[in-house]
Design a protein that fits this description.
mainly alpha; 2 domains; flat
Length: 250
């Protein structure tokens, strides 16, 4: 069974019942729209709307907070450079540094836009299993090889992570303690090599097992995708929100 920490098991919301193609198209349209916003009021409007959509998905709060914190850890670097690198009116003096209002505004705009896109995308990822995303990509005429590559990459990246933990634990049982010396570097290289070899051999076994079960390069469809009235309604509402935000803050 796939390990999908963002998914809410046993909970079916309105977003869960939408067709995967609707969710993918909606996420792409909203992301492109938010990325084109160049005003803070419009960015905040899009951010609050994405928070509302995320609340509709009812994701696990702990896992969602961890993901958002990790993403904003990278965004934090923007605040270390943009306020001091964009010319403009000086906001205040910070030792030898002179942050500008233009730089602060640009950093704030990128932060709000990034979080709006992240929350909106996370809402649909929460409400869609990986198999459903793969089925939606196929329904949007994405090449079958790319769909399979996406699905198996996600599926076996988790397995590679477990294999890495197993090898590392075996090394620690044998008194391996990482330090900054050649002994540690040599054993880390051995660990990576063993991981690559074990992953390759596991891939061969998985492929043989799938071929024995009739796999011919195409993932089976468990539930045929059907566009319902709720899908059309959702896309219309999203288009209305995008149009309204664009008109009011354009």
């Amino acid at each position: 069974m796939l390990d999908e920490p963002c998914a809410v098991n046993g909970r079916r919301t309105f977003l869960h019942r939408l067709d995967p193609r609707t969710k993918i198209l909606g996420s792409l349209a909203f992301s492109f729209f938010v990325a084109s916003i160049d005003a803070l009021p419009a960015a905040f409007t899009a951010f609050f709307f994405s928070l509302f959509v995320l609340a509709l998905a009812r994701p696990p709060l702990g896992r969602t907070a961890v993901l958002l914190s990790a993403a904003n850890g990278f965004i934090l670097f923007l605040w270390l450079f943009l306020p001091f690198s964009i010319p403009g009116e000086t906001a205040f003096l910070f030792g030898p540094f002179r942050p500008t209002w233009e730089g602060i505004e640009r950093a704030a705009l990128l932060t709000v836009r990034s979080n709006a896109i992240l929350c909106f995308t996370l809402a649909f990822v929460t409400a869609t299993p990986v198999a459903g995303i793969a089925q939606g990509l196929r329904g949007l005429s994405v090449p079958e090889k790319l769909v399979s590559l996406f699905f198996f990459t996600y599926r076996y990246a988790l397995e590679i992570g477990k294999e890495y933990s197993r090898i590392l634990k075996a090394a620690e049982i044998r008194c391996f303690r990482p330090r900054t010396n050649m002994h540690t570097y040599r054993h880390v290289a051995y660990l990576v090599g063993m991981l690559l070899v074990n992953s390759y051999e596991r891939g061969l076994r998985v492929r043989s097992a799938m071929v024995c079960r009739g796999f011919r390069g195409r993932l089976p469809v468990l539930e045929p995708a059907v566009v319902k009235k709720s899908d059309v309604f959702s896309l219309v509402v999203l288009a209305f929100v995008i149009f309204t935000v664009g008109v009011i803050h354009g």
